[in-house]
Amino acid sequence: MARSDMFFTQADFAKRSQGTQCRPKTQARRMSSVFRRAVLAAALVSFAALAHAQSKPIRLIVPYPPGGPLDIVARALADKVHDALGTVIVDNRPGAGGNLGADMAAKAAPDGTTLVMGAVATHAINPWLFAKMPYDALRDFTPITGVAQVPNVLVMNAPNADRLGIRTVADLVAYAKKNPGKLNYGSGGNGSAGHLAGEMFKAQAGVFMVHIPYAGGNPAQLALLSGQVDLTFDNLASASANIKSGKLRAIAVTTTARSTAMPEVPTVAESGKGIGLGGFDINTWFGLFGPAKLPAELTQKLNKAFVDALNTPELKARLGALMAETMASTPEQFGAFVKRENAKYEKVVKASGATVE
Q1: What pLDDT was estimated at residue 233?
Q2: Residue 64: what are its φ and ψ, rounded to 5°?
Q3: Could you write out the three-class secondary structure of 136-164?
Q4: Which residue of 13, 81, 213, 280 is most buried, as measured by CB atoms within 10 A?
Q5: pLDDT recorded at residue 52
Q6: Are residues 143 and 200 in the same domain?
Q7: Number of compact structural domains in the chain
Q8: pLDDT tier for residue 289 given thresholds of 50, 70 and 90
Q9: Are both 90 and 163 inside the same structural domain?
Q10: What pLDDT score was predicted for residue 357?
């Protein structure tokens, strides 16, 4: 055996002892390095999962057919939020008065990848109109932001209005009270916005007018133009061309504030303040909802993206072409608004007696 293997000098012993004493520190450093690598790996996995979730397209359900105001605005919004949210695909799912598409959103996972463009019908009228609903309009959704509102307008066939001497809300109410049941009004069907506006008007003004339902808004407008009915509560966008041509007379808009599209037309509330109509307020509105239990941070992110888009000149111009006005809001403001609308229409629908089985 070599001498070097049998004998240790004092220096050799010191070196080996020093190495032995340092071994625990080396192990600690190694364990710390392994831990850091594990944490980094976990973070990379989480980041990859988050990136994957953010890259997944958002499905924006429109519960009505293509080409309508909700669809037009939804597609404009989808383009505008692309930089903030990525791809947004508009998915038209009409049926059951909007209930079909709204229900699909209500039953989706609350991960921000499925939204719905809800409306006054899906979230305020239908819950009281339909005998059976597939969802709860308040509990099954997370409000994100209001999008727009479109005033309805009380219009009369112009020659008929001249013949009856009606130019204002006060004239209309006075005539109706003197001639109960002689006036009639058309609508797009039982439970439609025009029908319920007429019922609210009758209840608040204390008058009786005969309701004549048609199979949609266009047939109702044709009936008004031909003189088959005396008046309607029509959508301002669809009635505006005939108002401007003089075929229809705009008596009043149905919102609490005058429309910027037709500022010369007074509101029902201001014209009828002294005859029971001072609180009259009804319009067509729509807004964005996610499924219930959508995380607060995700709700705020979606709200900011869509509100920023709504406040751009391009979107305001698009809404203006539809005679609509933006109603961008916080999730809390929009949620409170929907609750008020839901409560309001409970009374109106029940008073009208309208039901859909």
Answers
A1: 97
A2: -140, 165
A3: CCCCCEEEEEEEEEEEEEEEEEHHHHHHH
A4: 280
A5: 43
A6: no
A7: 2
A8: very high
A9: no
A10: 80
